[in-house]
């Protein structure tokens, strides 16, 4: 008798492979709440330090001093923490920004491993089971998106200088606040459980929501996986941190600009943050016709390089440290103190802040403002020479500013005008 059941005798297609929204899709035996908790605590410490050093870097530009320094003019109350950036210790910015950039590079393997470890939860359905769960998922979305945005833009700015001319500072600044707000919310939600898991393990009878329900055969233990992540971070540290030092250590920085050999030999052979050619500086604007214009209550005073050399000369040993994280060791600068030029301009009793203008024809930070404490410091110079030799064109000939603890771009090269007291 004929079988009248639907599809009888017909071979139905087998179900397809599971989708990423299904727990069975994720089969790695390494995933688990303890593995994720270890990575999370490492990121908690690292990202907190990143955020603090990033805010310090922004403060070092003195953005509340003058409009020319402020690359995020709509920051509003987000600039509540800004303060007068000090001049001591003279290596302060070299240390804080070196930590910021190096740590950001070192944390990349940890961040990628953490994102991999929680991938099943990123794809889980339904998107929200309750109002609390919806808030958690939203914070997770902002956290992941913010982390990727901050790390990617930061790394691109290190590797490809001035990739975002005029826009990197607001992008990175606002992105950091959005990311850290999500990071803080996520930490408040997850830290107690992470600490409990690390101290006591999962409570009896509670499932590991990150573990695969159908794990594959293990090829590596969770401890070994953490060791691989740590080894990746150590490798990045070993191949990037050297750009903050001179000599042999700089040659180990194989994965970052400013690594390897110095750009030249001799007194002017140290690292250059911006070449004369890139800034549009040519010999016709730096030769005999060049004059420094000093402006203040005494009026406008124009000084040739010969006249500046005839003034009392002072020396200071200071590094160059840039926002990209690289720096030099202390170089021996020689020139006229900024406070002496302030006195010449008509401020003999107490030097005010100064607006420094470069003759460069292109590029950011052609004009910057320095605080009165920076002008007052005896190590702050209008430098005419370095390491016993005249400045080279790439290092700012005929004259440049050098200020202790200031970011590299605040040490203006090819100075043409100093306006004291009007910021």
Automatic annotation (TrEMBL):
An example Pfam family from this entry, by short name, is: Oxidored_molyb
Q: Which part of the chain is the Oxidoreductase molybdopterin-binding domain?
A: 282-420
Keywords assigned by UniProt, alphabetized: Membrane, Transmembrane, Transmembrane helix
Regions that span the bilayer:
35-61, 98-117, 138-159, 171-189
Q: PANTHER family this protein is in?
A: BLL0505 PROTEIN, PROTEIN-METHIONINE-SULFOXIDE REDUCTASE
User: What is this protein identified as?
Assistant: Molybdopterin-dependent oxidoreductase
Q: Which organism is it from?
A: Streptomyces mutomycini
Lineage of the source organism?
Bacteria, Bacillati, Actinomycetota, Actinomycetes, Kitasatosporales
């Amino acid at each position: 008798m004929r079988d009248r059941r639907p599809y009888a005798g017909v071979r139905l297609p087998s179900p397809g492979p599971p989708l990423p929204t299904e727990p069975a899709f994720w089969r790695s035996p390494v995933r688990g709440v303890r593995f994720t908790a270890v990575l999370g605590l490492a990121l908690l410490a690292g990202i907190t330090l990143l955020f603090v050093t990033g805010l310090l870097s922004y403060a070092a530009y003195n953005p509340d001093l003058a409009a020319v320094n402020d690359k995020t003019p709509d920051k509003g109350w987000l600039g509540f923490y800004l303060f007068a950036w000090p001049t001591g210790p003279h290596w302060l910015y070299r240390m804080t920004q070196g930590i910021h950039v190096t740590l950001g590079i070192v944390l990349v393997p940890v961040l990628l491993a953490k994102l991999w470890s929680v991938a099943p939860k990123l794809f889980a359905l339904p998107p929200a089971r309750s109002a609390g769960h919806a808030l958690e998922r939203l914070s997770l979305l902002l956290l992941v998106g913010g982390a990727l945005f901050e790390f990617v833009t930061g790394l691109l700015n290190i590797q490809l200088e001035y990739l975002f001319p005029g826009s990197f500072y607001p992008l990175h600044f606002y992105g950091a606040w959005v990311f850290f707000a999500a990071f803080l919310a996520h930490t408040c939600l997850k830290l107690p459980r992470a600490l409990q898991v690390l101290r006591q393990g999962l409570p009896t009878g509670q499932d590991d929501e990150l573990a695969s329900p159908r794990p594959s055969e293990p090829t590596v233990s969770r401890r070994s996986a953490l060791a691989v992540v740590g080894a990746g971070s150590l490798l990045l540290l070993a191949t990037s941190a050297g750009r903050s030092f001179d000599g042999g250590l700089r040659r180990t920085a194989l994965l970052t600009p400013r690594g390897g050999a110095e750009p030249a030999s001799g007194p002017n052979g140290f690292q250059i943050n911006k070449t004369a050619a890139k800034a549009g500086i040519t010999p016709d604007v730096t030769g005999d016709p060049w004059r420094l214009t000093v402006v203040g209550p005494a009026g406008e005073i124009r000084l040739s390089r010969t006249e500046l050399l005839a003034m009392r000369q002072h020396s200071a040993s200071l590094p160059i440290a840039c926002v990209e994280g690289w720096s030099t060791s202390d170089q021996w600068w020689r020139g006229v103190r900024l406070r002496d030029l302030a006195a010449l301009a008509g401020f003999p009793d107490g030097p005010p802040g100064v607006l420094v203008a470069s003759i460069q024809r292109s590029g950011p930070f052609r004009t910057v403002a320095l605080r009165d404490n920076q002008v007052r410091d005896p190590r702050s110079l209008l430098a005419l020479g370095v390491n016993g030799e005249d400045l080279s064109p790439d290092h700012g000939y005929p004259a440049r500013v050098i200020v202790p603890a200031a970011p590299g771009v605040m040490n203006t090269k090819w100075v043409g005008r100093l306006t004291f007291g009007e910021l």
